[in-house]
Amino acid sequence: MRILITNDDGINAPGLEVLEQIATELAGPQGEVWTVAPAFEQSGVGHCISYTHPTMIAELAPRRYAAEGSPADCVLAALGVLMDTPPDLVLSGVNRGNNAGENAMYSGTIGGAMEAALQGLPAIALSQYLGPQTAGLADPFEGARQHGAAIIRRLLDHGDWTSDADFRLFYNINFPPVPADAVQGLRVVPQGQRQGSRFSAMPYDAPNGRRFMWITGGSQQAPAREGSDVAANMAGHISVTPMRADLTCHASLDRLAQALDGPAPQAAQKVAAPKVAG
């Protein structure tokens, strides 16, 4: 098997080393693992692409490259510049921190997998949830390291990998914030949203008097509805969520169409102001 890996934490991130181990096990002795990852951390860039400026690519070792761009840029670089034939599978991660719930909308890890799916390739994003139970571990990625390859094999055997739909599916895996031996199992669940936890901006005044801001995240321990990815992770389960690059709310289409479909509305006629005799 020929596997392309990327991430959003950067080429030197410890989670990428975990993913290299997982990918090497999956590829087998006759396979290949190609690494194309951002030269610098790209957390929070989502599905951003460097559309308005060039991206430098540096070869660090055979089949290992750093690109000064986003994870989606890295996938595009691999497919359009670096690899002579497309990979059989694209893996993105292992992210330092979860990409469950609303985090998925901001995630560069998800963005890399999404770009691969848009290019017609099988793709999986992997993230390691962190919390109090992982803080003291010698390897906070041990859940992903020990369970990652087996979960991906099961997905490859049982996932929907057809590409005839408008938007090809990709998969989002989150490993729970517990030691590897405390993982409770696997749950296939939808994306959730944490209650009362939002990203926000914090002002910062520099010594020279200029004003800046920091973006701050909300609590990652906040609860989400039962049966969601967040709830599964907080209960010690690995979550698997099928996703696609389609933001349409299909549940609302029929009702809204019944209310709005029809001829184009007429523009309101301007009413002339009454003339005042003088």
Q: Report the end-to-end length measured between terminal Cα atoms.
A: 89 Å
Tally of alpha and pi helices: 7
Task: Please bin the fraction of helical residues.
Answer: 25-40%
Order of helices and strands: EHEEEHEHEHHEEEEHEH
CATH topology: Stationary-phase Survival Protein Sure Homolog, Chain: A
Number of strands: 11
Mean pLDDT: 95
Instruction: Give the number of domains.
Output: 1
Structural class: alpha/beta
Overall morphology = globular
Highest CATH level, the class? Alpha Beta
Overall CATH architecture: 3-Layer(aba) Sandwich
Low-confidence spans: pLDDT under 50, at least 5 residues? none
- What Rg do the Cα atoms give? 23 Å
Major sheet summary line: 9 strands, mixed
* Spatial strand order of the main sheet: 3-4-2-1-5-6-7-11-8
According to CATH, the homologous superfamily is Survival protein SurE-like phosphatase/nucleotidase
The proportion of residues in beta strands is: 15-25%
Keywords: Cytoplasm, Hydrolase, Metal-binding, Nucleotide-binding
EC number: 3.1.3.5
Function: Nucleotidase that shows phosphatase activity on nucleoside 5'-monophosphates.
Catalytic activity: a ribonucleoside 5'-phosphate + H2O = a ribonucleoside + phosphate
Which characteristics define this entry?
Stationary-phase Survival Protein Sure Homolog, Chain: A; 23% strand; 27% helix; nine-stranded mixed β-sheet; two-stranded antiparallel ribbon; alpha/beta; 278 residues
Give a short synopsis of this structure:
The chain is of the alpha/beta class and 278 residues long. The chain is 27% helix and 23% strand. The strands form 2 sheets. A 9-stranded mixed beta sheet has the order 3-4-2-1-5-6-7-11-8, with helices on both faces. The protein has a two-stranded antiparallel ribbon with strand order 9-10.
